[in-house]
Structures are given as structure tokens and as C-alpha cells.
């Protein structure tokens, strides 16, 4: 029951993230959502991370977090990148769902992709991870 409920909520959030971005980018509907396993490259208590056009999704063992950026964040980042602005304040909202009393969920990927990501973040070589294949929804 819990697994089914989590799947339904995740599907709803994925659909919402597509619709949030669709008015800004007509190619959004052709993109798929990739879930990248956290194999220690990120110092955070989540198992998978997905970056969508409208939000980021973090799946944990007892819930998930959905982080939505303000519509103007993209313009602000581009202004800084192209030297039109020195710095910018980006705005986000995070929605965290925690299933109180739930057992740890076993989260596994399906539809592994051929391409992979490499993460060389910081100076700690233990955190450097390579060959991480994302899973597609």
C-alpha cells in the first residue's frame, strides 16, 4: 500500500513539473525524467535525485522532498552568467513529505540508461564517483 501511494504521488509530481515548465520551453514534453542514485557523491540523506524542468525531486527511505524554483530564477542565472548582473538571489520552495512510522522503503531503479555521470565534487576522493547510470521514468 505504501509503495503504491508513493508511486502515485511521485507520478503526480512528475506531471506537475512538466506542466510548470511547458509554457517556458516547448521541448519539455519530449524530455524524460532521470533519477540518479546517490552513491555518496552528495552529502545528503536521499537515495535518488531527479532534476526536472520545473523542480528537483529527492527520494528518501521514508519520504520525498520536492524543491520548486521561482519562475524568474533562470533569467537571474543567465544575467549573472553573461555579466549583466554581479549576483542574484534565487528563490525556492521545498515541500517535504515524511511518512511517519513507515518502514524504510527499498528503492531501486528501472530502465537503466546507457549514458552515465561522473562526479568529482570537492577535494575528498572518497566522494568522487564515476560511471553512475541514471534510471528513466
Characteristics:
single chain, alpha+beta, 6-stranded antiparallel β-sheet, globular
Determine the N-to-C terminus distance: 20 Å
Radius of gyration: 16 Å
The SSE string, one letter per element, is HEEEEHEEEE
Q: How many helical stretches? A: 2
Which structural class fits the helix and strand makeup?
alpha+beta
Mean of all residue-level pLDDT scores: 81
Give the strand tally.
8
> What can be said about the biggest beta sheet?
6 strands, antiparallel
Strand content: 25-35%
Low-confidence stretches: 18-30
- What is the percent of helical residues? 10-25%
- Widest β-sheet, arrangement of strands: 5-4-3-2-1-8
Shape annotation? globular
Would you kindly provide a written description of the structure presented here, covering whatever features stand out?
With 137 residues, the chain is an alpha+beta fold. It has helices spanning 2-22, 73-81; strands spanning 34-37, 48-51, 55-59, 63-69, 92-98, 117-119, 129-132, 135-136. The protein has a six-stranded antiparallel sheet with strand order 5-4-3-2-1-8, with helices on one face. A hairpin with a 3-residue loop joins strand 3 and strand 4 (63-69). The longest helix is centred in the N-terminal third of the chain and has 21 residues, at 2-22. The radius of gyration is 16 Å and the shape is globular. The model is unreliable at 18-30 (pLDDT under 50).
Amino acid at each position: 500500500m505504501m509503495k503504491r501511494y508513493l508511486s502515485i504521488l511521485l507520478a503526480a509530481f512528475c506531471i506537475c513539473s512538466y506542466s510548470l515548465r511547458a509554457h517556458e520551453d516547448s521541448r519539455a514534453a519530449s524530455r524524460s525524467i532521470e533519477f540518479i542514485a546517490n552513491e555518496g557523491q552528495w552529502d545528503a540523506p536521499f537515495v535518488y535525485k531527479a532534476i526536472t524542468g520545473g523542480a528537483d525531486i529527492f527520494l528518501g527511505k521514508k519520504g520525498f522532498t520536492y524543491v520548486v524554483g521561482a519562475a524568474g530564477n533562470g533569467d537571474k542565472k543567465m544575467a549573472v552568467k553573461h555579466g549583466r548582473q554581479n549576483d542574484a538571489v534565487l528563490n525556492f520552495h521545498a515541500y517535504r513529505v515524511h511518512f511517519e512510522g513507515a518502514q524504510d522503503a527499498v528503492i531501486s531503479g528501472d530502465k537503466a540508461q546507457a549514458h552515465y555521470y561522473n562526479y568529482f565534487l570537492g577535494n575528498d576522493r572518497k566522494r568522487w564517483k564515476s560511471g553512475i547510470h541514471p534510471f528513466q521514468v
